Amino acid sequence: MKKIFGCVLFASSLFLFPIKTHAIGKLQQDLPYAVSEQTQICILCHRNVTPGIVEDWKTSRHSKVTPEIALKKPLLERRVSSETIPEDIGSVVVGCYECHSQNSSLHKDNFEHFGFHINVVVSPNDCKTCHAKEAAQFSGSKKAYALDNLRENQIYSQFVDAVPSIKEVRDSTIHYSNASEKSKLETCYACHGAEITVDGMRKIKTNFGNIEVPNLKNWPNQGVGRINPDGSRGACTSCHPRHSFSIEIARKPYTCSQCHLEQDIPAYEVYNESKHGNIFLSKQDTWNWNNVPWRVGMDFQAPTCATCHNSLLVNPEGKEIVSRTHDFGSRLWVRIFGLIYSHPQPKSGKTYEIKNKDGLPLPATYMNEVAAEYLIDEEEQLVRKNEMKKVCNSCHNNDWVSGHFEKFDSTLSETDTMVLNATTLMKNMWDKGFADASNPFDELIEMLWVKQWFIYANSIRFASAMIGPDRATFKNGWWQLTENFHKIHEFAKKCEYEH
Amino acid sequence: MKKIFGCVLFASSLFLFPIKTHAIGKLQQDLPYAVSEQTQICILCHRNVTPGIVEDWKTSRHSKVTPEIALKKPLLERRVSSETIPEDIGSVVVGCYECHSQNSSLHKDNFEHFGFHINVVVSPNDCKTCHAKEAAQFSGSKKAYALDNLRENQIYSQFVDAVPSIKEVRDSTIHYSNASEKSKLETCYACHGAEITVDGMRKIKTNFGNIEVPNLKNWPNQGVGRINPDGSRGACTSCHPRHSFSIEIARKPYTCSQCHLEQDIPAYEVYNESKHGNIFLSKQDTWNWNNVPWRVGMDFQAPTCATCHNSLLVNPEGKEIVSRTHDFGSRLWVRIFGLIYSHPQPKSGKTYEIKNKDGLPLPATYMNEVAAEYLIDEEEQLVRKNEMKKVCNSCHNNDWVSGHFEKFDSTLSETDTMVLNATTLMKNMWDKGFADASNPFDELIEMLWVKQWFIYANSIRFASAMIGPDRATFKNGWWQLTENFHKIHEFAKKCEYEH
Amino acid sequence: MKKIFGCVLFASSLFLFPIKTHAIGKLQQDLPYAVSEQTQICILCHRNVTPGIVEDWKTSRHSKVTPEIALKKPLLERRVSSETIPEDIGSVVVGCYECHSQNSSLHKDNFEHFGFHINVVVSPNDCKTCHAKEAAQFSGSKKAYALDNLRENQIYSQFVDAVPSIKEVRDSTIHYSNASEKSKLETCYACHGAEITVDGMRKIKTNFGNIEVPNLKNWPNQGVGRINPDGSRGACTSCHPRHSFSIEIARKPYTCSQCHLEQDIPAYEVYNESKHGNIFLSKQDTWNWNNVPWRVGMDFQAPTCATCHNSLLVNPEGKEIVSRTHDFGSRLWVRIFGLIYSHPQPKSGKTYEIKNKDGLPLPATYMNEVAAEYLIDEEEQLVRKNEMKKVCNSCHNNDWVSGHFEKFDSTLSETDTMVLNATTLMKNMWDKGFADASNPFDELIEMLWVKQWFIYANSIRFASAMIGPDRATFKNGWWQLTENFHKIHEFAKKCEYEH
């Protein structure tokens, strides 16, 4: 009760007192299990300060079940993966305080807030308390290193800097400034994540008077490879947004689409244009989005992104088809976007550690010599392909599936050849000094070359993988790949002619 | 009854009579309050002639409540804003005749139709009978002057004419014809509105024989700045479409998206790609779309366009957060699209009245000298920004919100610089006679320059305002802004070289 | 029972037996009418092998009604159109065996499968057993000949080959290889259909051991003009996907959108951006998607693709407005996409039979001289236009509709003029030898010309037909048509200058 009075005294309002009692009583009455005293006090103020997230939380499973109860579910139905959960939080529902107070000694963003020690940012290391397996799977994945894989890679850090920088003509030449941190936050780092640091405290004005809060740099940011003030990597809220932490939202393609969309990663668009997307868009309202485990054919009749890439699936009798994973590459054998050529998945999530024959942190040289020692071998590729095939086979027979993947393999090979043919022209221009290879992203001809692999070849591969033929053809597909190849060739001929 | 007989006699059908009695009886039986005799007669024929809109109306609130009843609601729940409503229409539900007979003396499109005097077009001035505040707010807004702001502005009228005109090569030069009225109706004026005039009467064939109706010019048109045959401006049906007049439809982003979409105004696309859009798309079916007032967190858990820009919002206890507005710029302090540079909102909806230092009706000169006297001052900007922040603060704390707007301010400044750098190249070409400034929209190099501000800078600003990072980066964002800048520079260099 | 034992014996599993009995019992218990013995056995294994499609089928009407019962419905409510249905399948629900065993003697893909003779591919000729009228309407349509209309047309077969072929620079010239069959399958043939042939048998591994299945070439493919192993044309599953055969899915625009989407056929995008799309997207969840006949205004309040182009519609009293058709061009008088100019619909679905004045299989010459004898005459155009107007008139009065179509006619004429002006430039380059007309798809300048008609003029026409003004203006509309015309002109001037 001391803390409750602390809060009440701070607010200096006798008037608040009866509201509070009523409010807490009403909150508890709505919910089946106990809400901690601390969380009740959080809500006491935040129902006025940020009512939207309080109500959002009330729609969540977190508000309606305690970890203790959650642990008693049969294994396949369980949504918590930690084998044990600390007693002090096990017996209350998962509220504000339960999440925003975890591991406070690690949190540089921890601060005193109306008598409590609160972390501003909740990190995967905090979620790990109940969701240990998911945190572990994620922690080694490419997603966890999404920021490092840009800024620790000298090629990609040039890319990040070139795109959103101010360009200006001086002396008949275009000069690139360095991109501002704010522009990087609104472009590459919005999806890849930023490093959130704490630079002292700052005063802010609230309805309850001035208060002091940690002065966070690079905030707000919910990128998937965010480096948090506790040193951990990731932002679970990227896919389980805000305070509902909804499995439904994570299972719908609208979530993945925030980052995996055209121009460079048209996964969402291809899905929408596929038969899977057609059925999803037409019938989604009749499906069971919250069931765990997720029953093929009964809970849904066509897959979403999550179905194929990470969900635990069972057949109608409840037998497991594939297990849940939060390493989103673990059912993938080949990487089809973001790099010059398609190539086997990297062994480690830290792709900036790769070094190819030319000494560059890329999985293949510009002329497509593969850095095989950093990539999974054929055996592992087959293991993963077979894992994915289990999902396909839920609805398609073997014949269908193998026919599909034969086309996909052919497309990877053909798009790689097309990119190699363009890169041969580009390399020739670099070699002859018609362009400057020291930064491969800052000249017009280089931008044409980048589009060839970063946009057009990618699109065709996604269209092949998920059957969205329009995108393979006329929408950033073969048509654009061809037209752009002509333009690169025209440019190259002009350079030869003029020099 | 005389009128009923009029109708029946006209139809010259004894057979119709028993159907009619039954039909009117059945209609009234479906509806809780009285339907006027006139509306019953409208429906008697139109249930056969245009059954879709009769059924649509039956789904509406208009068909289920009388203005008298509506006026008795508590203030915040009230959907009618007029303080008094004429007695003759107050006691019946709002049917065909109630709307299509208002202010008939003002309506040049009024005509005798089976014994009644009917306006073809229902205008904001008619809706004003019950919705006085909304009509008043709208009437001074940029939306109300959307048509005038094109055709009364000598720069933008050139734009409207250049785009959909026939182009032809004669003597090695491209010649532009004047755009046809029909093409303007299908392009700019479809959103901005057209002027509907009446040119006598014309005969049309119907199931009930030939009838005479007003011969409307520029019809059909539902543009938001339509000039109606009663002289009023606007078309409420732009956002409250057809005969359901649904608040649900107006609150959903699909409505705004008809005009506010890429290439030039990618508000809808950015929203869809944002976390707000992600949550909306995933959870919309569980939200309460019809509640008035709209309760943050309870009725919905993420905002739509309407939430931030015009809805009346209350917190879960029913306390007002922001009031309803139908001046859609009234929570906006800066204008980020449609013009060369971002700039403070104009004071008046009649933007064609602006005159900048160069004498042009633009809020800034080509070199970004602002016409400050026509734009809101810093104090008013702050008032509006704070109004918007109240919406943000419903779910985000102050820290989050201020961090977000700091990025936005930086982006406005950076995109304006990028546009200025391109305009400097363009102006140099105009000054040197490499291009002809008398019409800035009709040469290839000018089209590149227009894309720089009209498409690419806009996209980055919208992406910043509503957090859709892909569009800031690769989809009409920094990438295209940069590539296009290179192209403008190449063109400029070629001009210098050749002359 | 012999066959059941056959299956059980093959599976060599005593354990399977009790499961089977239970499984069949349970299946029958879920369903109102008898399931054939054969289908029960199919399901016995396939509920484990491909559970998704078994569950999908259980959601279908096929699983819940027998043809006998279906035939007893009043005519307008009937979903089967054959007047009689063979007795042996009339009394059981339409299960696996009922469809996959039809007309087996015609099926080159028929094979022995656990004691049954099964067709892999179910064709329109099989569906015809119950849906005779739909199969007949479809069989003469352009859709049925979608594959032939590409590969039997020497112009379009060049197009199909040029787009997805590997390009390479040799001796300073771009060389085109022939496109691989797999690439054609992933591009043009994915929508247009492929010819499925059978090349002997092949062994595949299953959970029940190795089995032999027909070795299908060009499989999987669900293109609408597929040539099936029984010689018939079409794939009903293009629009009635997988095993739910849902009328709901076919009525939603997500289905049509798989093929009718930008860049070349932006029907879906224009619809989404139209007022019809706005209402559909906002209110679809409240509509009745399964009612037959479909009641205007009651079952839905805005049309989808199916509403205007093929559904049987009735007014609220049940009176027919338009009849059902599976010849999707039968309410269309003009063709607005895919060819150089808009033109009256062809008389026959076999458009490759057309021969214009220049001897080419195109409905007009490059200079727009129409091959009138192959196209419907004015009288037939009027018949079809009036059919479409009946749909429009359900919600819009005559005045509105005629105003709309006047704009459309104007737009067809204007876009054709714009294309002619570009083609005049192109033809001049061909005539002067600046480009090589023998393949009009493989040079950069030709690609610009193709975009003029194949993408930009099309988009404006769709935007006009369905009122999506943004697309008429800035998104592959007049803006791009104009910018691209400038580029073609620049190219032409450069050729003149250099030669």
Secondary-structure blueprint:
Three copies of one chain form a homotrimer.
Chain A: H1 2-10, H2 16-30, H3 37-49, H4 51-58, H5 67-71, H6 87-90, H7 96-100, E1 110-113, E2 116-119, H8 124-127, H9 132-139, H10 148-151, H11 154-162, E3 167-170, E4 173-176, H12 181-186, H13 188-192, E5 197-206, E6 209-217, H14 247-251, H15 253-256, H16 267-273, H17 275-283, E7 294-295, H18 305-309, E8 313-314, E9 320-322, E10 334-335, E11 343-344, H19 378-392, H20 398-431, H21 444-466, H22 469-473, H23 478-498
Parallel strand pairs in A: 7-8
Antiparallel strand pairs in A: 1-2, 3-4, 5-6, 8-9, 10-11
Helix pairs in contact in A: 2-3, 3-4, 16-17, 20-21, 20-23, 21-23
What does this structure look like?
Three copies of one chain form a homotrimer. Chain A is mainly alpha-helical and 499 residues long. Chain A has three domains: 1-102, no CATH class; 133-238, no CATH class; 247-498, Up-down Bundle (Hydroxylamine Oxidoreductase, Chain A, domain 2). Chain A has helices at residues 2-10, 16-30, 37-49, 51-58, 67-71, 87-90, 96-100, 124-127, 132-139, 148-151, 154-162, 181-186, 188-192, 247-251, 253-256, 267-273, 275-283, 305-309, 378-392, 398-431, 444-466, 469-473, 478-498, and strands spanning 110-113, 116-119, 167-170, 173-176, 197-206, 209-217, 294-295, 313-314, 320-322, 334-335, 343-344. Chain A has a three-stranded mixed β-sheet with strand order 7-8-9, with helices on one face. A two-stranded antiparallel ribbon of chain A has the order 1-2. Residues 1-19 of chain A have low confidence and may be disordered. Chains in contact: A-B, A-C, B-C. Chains A and B meet through helix 3, helix 4, strand 3, helix 12 and helix 13 of A and helix 17, helix 20, helix 21, helix 22 and helix 23 of B.
